[in-house]
Specification:
3 helices; two-stranded antiparallel sheet; elongated; alpha+beta; about 30% helix
Length: about 110
Protein backbone atom coordinates (compact mmCIF):
# COMPACT_ATOMS: atom_id res chain seq x y z
CA UNK A 1 0.00 0.00 0.00
CA UNK A 2 1.31 3.44 -0.94
CA UNK A 3 1.86 5.84 1.93
CA UNK A 4 -0.60 8.74 1.66
CA UNK A 5 -0.06 12.28 2.90
CA UNK A 6 -2.60 13.60 5.35
CA UNK A 7 -4.47 16.84 4.73
CA UNK A 8 -2.73 18.36 7.76
CA UNK A 9 0.70 17.43 6.37
CA UNK A 10 -0.17 18.81 2.92
CA UNK A 11 -1.42 22.09 4.38
CA UNK A 12 1.83 22.47 6.34
CA UNK A 13 3.71 22.37 3.02
CA UNK A 14 1.41 24.39 0.77
CA UNK A 15 -0.77 27.45 1.36
CA UNK A 16 -3.61 28.25 -1.03
CA UNK A 17 -5.57 31.39 -1.86
CA UNK A 18 -8.73 32.07 -3.78
CA UNK A 19 -8.79 34.61 -6.60
CA UNK A 20 -12.22 35.75 -7.82
CA UNK A 21 -11.13 35.62 -11.48
CA UNK A 22 -8.79 32.62 -11.49
CA UNK A 23 -10.13 30.47 -8.68
CA UNK A 24 -7.96 28.48 -6.31
CA UNK A 25 -4.20 28.64 -6.67
CA UNK A 26 -1.06 27.86 -4.67
CA UNK A 27 0.14 30.90 -2.78
CA UNK A 28 3.18 29.55 -0.95
CA UNK A 29 5.27 26.38 -0.86
CA UNK A 30 7.12 25.69 2.38
CA UNK A 31 9.66 23.20 1.11
CA UNK A 32 11.49 21.99 -1.95
CA UNK A 33 9.84 21.08 -5.23
CA UNK A 34 11.14 17.88 -6.83
CA UNK A 35 9.28 18.03 -10.09
CA UNK A 36 7.86 20.46 -12.59
CA UNK A 37 5.79 23.62 -12.25
CA UNK A 38 3.22 23.98 -15.02
CA UNK A 39 2.50 27.65 -14.49
CA UNK A 40 4.21 30.83 -13.43
CA UNK A 41 6.02 31.79 -10.25
CA UNK A 42 5.11 35.28 -9.13
CA UNK A 43 7.38 35.68 -6.15
CA UNK A 44 10.78 34.68 -4.95
CA UNK A 45 12.64 31.44 -4.55
CA UNK A 46 13.73 31.31 -0.93
CA UNK A 47 12.11 34.67 -0.23
CA UNK A 48 14.00 36.20 -3.16
CA UNK A 49 17.20 35.76 -1.17
CA UNK A 50 18.43 32.22 -1.70
CA UNK A 51 17.25 29.24 -3.66
CA UNK A 52 18.18 26.97 -6.49
CA UNK A 53 16.46 25.96 -9.69
CA UNK A 54 17.65 22.57 -10.92
CA UNK A 55 16.20 22.52 -14.39
CA UNK A 56 15.09 24.87 -17.08
CA UNK A 57 13.09 28.05 -16.91
CA UNK A 58 10.76 28.12 -19.90
CA UNK A 59 9.99 31.80 -19.60
CA UNK A 60 11.32 35.12 -18.42
CA UNK A 61 12.85 36.14 -15.10
CA UNK A 62 11.71 39.55 -13.91
CA UNK A 63 14.19 40.32 -11.19
CA UNK A 64 17.76 39.70 -10.27
CA UNK A 65 19.73 36.50 -10.05
CA UNK A 66 21.79 36.53 -6.89
CA UNK A 67 24.23 33.80 -7.77
CA UNK A 68 25.39 32.06 -10.89
CA UNK A 69 23.76 30.72 -14.02
CA UNK A 70 25.13 27.33 -15.00
CA UNK A 71 23.78 26.83 -18.48
CA UNK A 72 22.55 29.10 -21.21
CA UNK A 73 20.16 32.00 -21.60
CA UNK A 74 18.34 31.94 -24.92
CA UNK A 75 20.93 29.47 -26.18
CA UNK A 76 23.91 31.62 -25.16
CA UNK A 77 26.35 30.96 -22.35
CA UNK A 78 25.83 33.36 -19.47
CA UNK A 79 28.74 35.48 -18.27
CA UNK A 80 29.12 38.51 -16.07
CA UNK A 81 30.05 41.67 -17.99
CA UNK A 82 31.43 44.64 -16.11
CA UNK A 83 30.05 47.94 -17.40
CA UNK A 84 32.49 50.79 -18.08
CA UNK A 85 31.12 52.64 -15.04
CA UNK A 86 31.59 49.60 -12.80
CA UNK A 87 35.10 49.06 -14.15
CA UNK A 88 36.06 52.69 -13.52
CA UNK A 89 34.68 52.51 -9.98
CA UNK A 90 36.57 49.26 -9.31
CA UNK A 91 39.86 50.62 -10.70
CA UNK A 92 39.57 53.84 -8.70
CA UNK A 93 38.76 51.95 -5.51
CA UNK A 94 41.59 49.48 -6.09
CA UNK A 95 44.04 52.35 -6.66
CA UNK A 96 43.53 53.52 -3.08
CA UNK A 97 43.80 57.16 -4.24
CA UNK A 98 41.43 58.93 -1.85
CA UNK A 99 41.17 62.05 -4.04
CA UNK A 100 40.00 59.93 -7.02
CA UNK A 101 37.59 57.99 -4.80
CA UNK A 102 36.11 61.21 -3.39
CA UNK A 103 35.78 62.71 -6.90
CA UNK A 104 34.03 59.58 -8.21
CA UNK A 105 31.65 59.56 -5.24
CA UNK A 106 30.90 63.25 -5.83
CA UNK A 107 30.02 62.49 -9.45
CA UNK A 108 27.75 59.65 -8.27
CA UNK A 109 25.91 62.00 -5.90
CA UNK A 110 25.25 64.60 -8.61
Amino acid sequence: MTKQITLEQALSLVRFEYDEKKGWRVNEVNGDIYGDIYGGVNGGVGGAVKGHIWGGVGGDIYGGVVGNVYGTINGRKWMYVETPKEKLQRLITESGNQELIDTFNQLENN
